[in-house]
Design a protein that fits this description.
- By secondary structure, the protein is mainly α.
- It is 96% helix and 0% strand.
- It is built from 1 helix and no strands.
- The longest helix has 76 residues.
- The chain is rod-shaped and about 115 Å long.
Length: 79
């Protein structure tokens, strides 16, 4: 009788522990998902800034190259 009662209490405690562990794991998974989604959004924003910066740099380089070509053309024409 005592052994059966003890076994039932142990089984109940094991079940309760498993349910609690599952609850904690679910919360951890939700937190991880939320954190990763926020990181993904921030990285997308940063990527947009990087792309805009590269495009602006490309424009500046093109303008500089055109000015250098004009300067060389004028130098060659004056010779």
């Amino acid at each position: 009788m005592i052994r059966q009662t003890t076994q039932q209490k142990c089984d109940s405690l094991i079940l309760k522990s498993r349910n609690e562990a599952a609850f904690i794991q679910d919360g951890a998974n939700r937190y991880a998902e939320q954190t990763l989604k926020e990181l993904e959004n921030r990285l997308a924003e940063i990527n947009q800034v990087v792309l805009a910066g590269r495009q602006e740099l490309s424009k500046i380089q093109s303008i500089t190259a055109m000015r250098e070509q004009k300067s060389k053309s004028k130098s060659n024409n004056n010779v």
